[in-house]
Write a sequence for this structure.
């Protein structure tokens, strides 16, 4: 009944960070799913993760001999449509699905394609991993919060718990996982977008000033939308998130800022796009998210 292998889709900073922990425990039973060209490119590549060398198994998404006990989605939301198809050949009847992606939409997409019997809802926070070429560095691995949608301790929840314990990955099984997903969206919507628009780092929001003030006000805007969706987000949560942000490496930056620096398509639709859409649904004005959405789209258009 144990999880004996893990397949990861997405070899970015987050996927590689978690893979390093999982491989230390599962050895050769950690795999990255990729298309044929990426497999050829990354197959024999050494990754340097916090100074230690790793070589991971890459398997082509067209293969169908191996089946996954656990599939972890660690891609950007912009790559979700492709990824949902790429994992198809590795799914069996009892494959567990876990998404460490931002936002509240990835679980809905997984559910549409593979059902929710073995789908666990998840949010991750507190990490500051960054990737440059084949180098990944982080000072904090953060916490994986996960659970069954109905907050029941199922066999799947137990199996993943045992895996995380053995792999030394910090985890938490919250009382209300959907609340956690919304709380993390509140954080990401504010921090990712404000840091990108102000072209700063975590250090830019760790000191008093316009960026920090805006982060807090954007969170309060998300609070209103969440309440209309039946989720109560408190000011204490905002204070706790800000306290956590203050512990991160001031030289690092969240993923959306990394994307704008590298001139990549961002996850703005997942953040401001989601809040704008739900704001309209509930007739709630979202001027800060409207502003951030427009500014980030402007940044993308000027690449």
């Amino acid at each position: 009944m144990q999880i004996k292998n893990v397949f990861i889709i997405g070899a970015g900073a987050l996927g590689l960070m978690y893979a390093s922990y999982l491989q230390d425990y599962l050895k050769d039973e950690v795999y990255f799913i990729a298309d044929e060209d990426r497999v050829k490119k990354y197959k024999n590549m050494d990754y340097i993760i916090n100074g230690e060398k790793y070589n991971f198994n890459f398997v082509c998404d067209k293969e169908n001999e191996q089946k996954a006990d656990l599939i972890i989605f660690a891609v950007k939301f912009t790559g979700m449509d492709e990824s949902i198809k790429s994992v198809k050949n590795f799914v069996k009847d009892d494959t567990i699905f876990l998404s460490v992606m931002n936002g509240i939409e990835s679980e809905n997409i997984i559910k549409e394609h593979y059902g929710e019997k073995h789908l666990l809802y998840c949010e991750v926070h507190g990490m500051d991993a960054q990737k440059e070429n084949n180098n990944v560095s982080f000072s904090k691995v953060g916490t994986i919060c996960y659970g069954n949608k109905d907050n029941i301790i199922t066999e799947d929840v137990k199996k993943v718990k045992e895996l995380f314990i053995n792999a030394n990955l910090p985890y938490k099984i919250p009382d209300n996982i959907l609340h956690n997903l919304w709380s993390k969206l509140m954080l990401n919507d504010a921090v990712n977008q404000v840091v990108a628009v102000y072209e700063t780092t975590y250090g830019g929001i760790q000191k008093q000033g316009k960026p920090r003030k805006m982060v807090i006000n954007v969170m309060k805007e998300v609070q209103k939308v969440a309440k209309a969706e039946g989720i109560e987000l408190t000011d204490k949560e905002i204070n706790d998130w800000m306290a956590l942000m203050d512990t991160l490496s001031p030289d690092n930056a969240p993923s959306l800022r990394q994307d704008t620096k590298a001139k990549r398509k961002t996850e703005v639709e997942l953040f401001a796009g989601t809040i704008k859409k739900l704001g309209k649904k509930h007739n709630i004005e979202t001027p800060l998210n409207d502003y951030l959405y427009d500014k980030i789209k402007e940044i993308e258009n000027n690449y």
About this structure: The radius of gyration is 19 Å. The chain has a mean pLDDT of 95. DSSP finds twelve helices and twelve strands in the chain. The CA atoms of residues 57 and 127 lie 24 Å apart.
